[in-house]
Amino acid sequence: MNSASWHARISCGRDTGAGFLVTERHVLTCAHVVARRDTDTVAVSFAHAGYEEIPARVVAHGGWDGRESDPGDLAVLELDRPVPLKPAEFATPTDAYGDPPRRLLAYGFPKRYDEGTLAEYRATARQLIAGEWVQLESWAAHGQPLAPGFSGAAVTLADTGRVVGMVSAAARSPEIRNGRMLPAQVMARYWPRLADLIPTPDYDQQQKEHLRHLLRQLDQPASQALTGTRGPARQALTDPTPAHRTGPQPHLPGARGTAHPAPTGPQPTHDHPIPASASASAQEYDPERLYQDAVGPLGPPLPPHRFTSLWDAAWYLLSEVPDPAAVTRFTARLADFVDDTPTRTALRAWPSAPQAHRADPAPGRPSRGAARDAAHTWSPILVEIAPSGSGDGSFLVEVSAYNGGHRRVVGSRRLPVDRVRPYTLERIDEAYRELSVGARELLAFVLPRRWLNTDVAHWQRSADDDSPLGSFAPLVVLDLERRRSGGLQHKLRQKWQYLDERPAARLHRIDCWSVGQDQVKLTIGLRRDADMVGFATPPRADRVRRLFQASLNAAVPVMLWPRTGCRGEHRCGESGDCRGAEFLDRLAEHLAKLPPRELPRFVHELRETAYASDGPEPHWAYDLALLWEDPECLPDPTGYLHNPVG
Q: What's the pLDDT score for residue 413?
């Protein structure tokens, strides 16, 4: 702790408190420490760093209104200049509690201790008092109590030095030796940026950032009407030992902002379910109703504080609800009310998001980290259809099921062409018995290159079900020749390693009038610059097939095209009325900014919409074809090592 230079001393006129550095320019403290900021100068110094006082200003405020029992006792200070000190690091929201209790330290600046001093405490329980505070008890019957001057001090784990909260109050009598801590996850309610710094055990930083981005997009148009159903939580504390602020306690005149604004406008009620068919609006984005749906009737009740945004509710689920799947149910329920297809599909797919790169412990394999592990969350049913090689017009059909990365052959047979489809569909149905209940199925057809445009997504699912196979589950195609190439499989692994570290893929367009491009130059260019390729035309004409082959040879992992439409034989783009150009525009609008690992699911959503469309013209995605190949998701079968002709 002596080397923790991020501990700060806060001065506001004659008042003194503590704080701690969380970025190179931001310091957290209690709002009551800087209550006189409108009339007195706020200054910050760092006891261990030897810096003189640095002027600061309050840039965010929790809404504390001056009463002892009022929540939101948080102020964020911005220094006049950044400091070259390492900021504090945070523990997970549950690390402060344990059996036996964990020793906690607070570094404050009471009277006659300008250099600061330590107090040893422990958390009584994880239970929040009035949904806001954790009670602190002295670690021993002697030692430094939480005297005035400790307000705003970071509460840290004694063994790691990581922050779990902030001292906000203490008992009036020094003999009682207890106090209160504002936990870090509660502070993040009032300054959402803090959530980026607080680790959560079940979801990583990129997943949280992805979720916050999605919810902020929905919060913005709903901000005026998103008021919830309950009034502000202003509950008086009934502690038998009255608590006092551990620093000066003047009233806060004209508090800047409020953490719990009074409801305005018509209030939504919980008497009736929200209609799923309605257009998305602020009323349907009620975070408290979504919270209740996520935790269920037997889950934790609504907290005393109101949720003021979707992210507020999601953060509460992430950090304070013990069920790690609750936030996933929250996003899935929210998706029911979202009309925008990319946002809806991204919410349903969350927490699948680009993962941070980390070392792969498996020897002899490329490092793909958590993102490589995420590939195995797909449980593919693999269908391989190839010419038998005997010259009699028959085909080899093999259907396999992957479960947890392990492959089991369900059926393999040489068949005449008219038996391929019924046999394949029967074996697919049988392969589902190999998947666990929670498996994310993926139908993957490995086809010879000249048959990649086959309408497998439109195959009738079974003799008793006329619905298209592509509406039943995510469905992709793969190129048989590329799958058998060791060099191209290696390049694909390298490409996915790169993609897993990016939030979205780069879409390269090949328009109808681009069919005259040089094949070799295109292969080299795509190998370097393209993550996925969108074709405006199906690969039927020779010129288009050459460009299609160039994309396959460039190891582009994702390719999309319309199975029908313009053949690219004329300069149709000059007329401004080109179905292919419109297709690519829609493709960019719906898919270009999404994580490539989840594209099979997003395309499945589009196909469901297209198949159910009642418009006079076919939906633009009705004939959408998707080639999606990740070698880690579908390990090479050993059967490719020998000649299949018997």
A: 92
